[in-house]
What we know:
By secondary structure, the chain is an alpha/beta fold.
Amino acid sequence: xxxxxxxxxDEVALANSxxxxxxxxxFDVLIAxxxxxxxxxxxxxxxxxxxxxxxxxxxxxSGMNLLREIRKISQVPIIMLTARxxxxxxxxxxxxxxxxxxxxxxxxxxxxxRIKVALRHTQKSVSDQLISINNLKINLEKTRVCIDDKIxxxxxxxxxxxxxxxxxxxxxCSRNDLLDAVWxxxxxxxxxxxxxxxxxxxxxxxxxxxxxxxxxxxxxxxxYIE
Length: 226
């Protein structure tokens, strides 16, 4: 499955040229031409973005401010690509969460290598943040759910419910367990809301993974025989 790269660059010719090269390297590319558009694009596609190439001097919101905003909600790899070549600028960017810093003008080959290195480091760091059963996988850092590497659209509540069940694989989870973990101990609605969400999940993931344990609750398992 192709990686998705978000390129935030206001120089149109450079952005288009880089996008062509990235696509040739089998990346799916999203382009934003100013800081505000970059933030909106990231928030919209946060579940599929694997790496960001970020200019510093952007209209509407600087790359540095955008870096800080993204770091409040995500640890996605970010490489700064900028004409600012002072050591103090590099120190500031790295101190605020950038994974790498490349100054313009630059060599394309070096940029591509640094992208691959950043992705390799990320794959190592998130290995403990992946849970799976059969062909169903969840990236906990991105809250991304995939079946056979195809992304499945879930609501946040559905995803939270699925994560809880999968982290308690082969264990029966009562409705009260699920309500407390997913809806919170202060939830005052009807307990059958759990059944509604379980039914929704069964329409989106393999139905034989979530088992109903009569008079007890639900279990995710590939070994349970009803």
